[in-house]
Amino acid sequence: MKQFIAALPKVELHLHIEGTLEPELMFALAKRNGISLPYADVAALATAYDFHNLQSFLDLYYQGAAVLQTEQDFFDLTWAYLVRCHEQHVVHTEVFFDPQTHLVRGIDMGTVVGGITAALDKAEQQWGISSCLILCFLRHLSEADALATLEAAIPYLDKIQGVGLDSSEVGNPPSKFVQVFARARALGLKAVAHAGEEGPASYIWEALDQLQVCRVDHGVRSTDDPRLIARLAEEQIPLTVCPLSNTRLKVFDQMADHSILRLLDQDVCVTVNSDDPAYFGGYMQENFEALAKDLKASKEQLRQLALNGVQASWMPSLRKKRLI
Ligand code: ES4
Ligand code: ZN
Question: Pick from 71, 121, 156, 221: most CB atoms within 10 A?
């Protein structure tokens, strides 16, 4: 089964680049930039990765991102992730980044976008891994802050294909960001949003109807609402599901409880993704393996999940056809 999964051409559609910061690189960048971390070593940091919900993870994730300072740092971070993509036969990836986390520390948009896209371009040239870049707004901040962030990104829009919405979900509904998403769409950007990870199914309706997203990130709480499931299936609106993330953040108590195969059975276009692999214990290969091991997913189901990723991606249709 491991070999079958390794041989599948995989597409990743839900990946926070700041969430690929492995403890070893975090320490190396801290040293390079003269920053002290509140952990003695890699082992001490790893023991802190014991999350009980989304917020307990986000607190560590934002703290870790503070070691990222220079364009070289963003390049090194992204390159390390792309090496994993190459090793795991990920042929296309759509990468989220959180500019507000960096802008607030005095790092400019050009440093962040320049470092990330230099690595993405190199991976395309060297290995043929294609990619998109998605600017995410932090939903715990104001819509005005998101609008200012979008304006700061305007000089770089040739390198950015879409906008997303992430961070603390409950209490920060999609409806808080209607104006900034309208502006993004007017600028020609595609839209996605995290919804229904910890938040209710009503946030998924809002993301669809008020933000006009073309995919929903997570979306697993859709199972609370049969009318929503019917719409997702009817309109083939993809959900970017992240199995290891969901168990690490206690969205599901254990993998055996995960709803991804039930959603697949109901003809929802569910895909498999790694979210924040350095924090959640695995990249694409390990996420697929967990479904095989703990949910007893068949080869046919795994193949369909991988094909859904191709379908749900923003790659050109000719490239899709070659992968299907
Ligand atoms: C995230 Cl798992 C998750 N949910 C919401 N926001 C995020 N940012 C990074 N990972
Ligand atoms: Zn996410």
Answer: 221
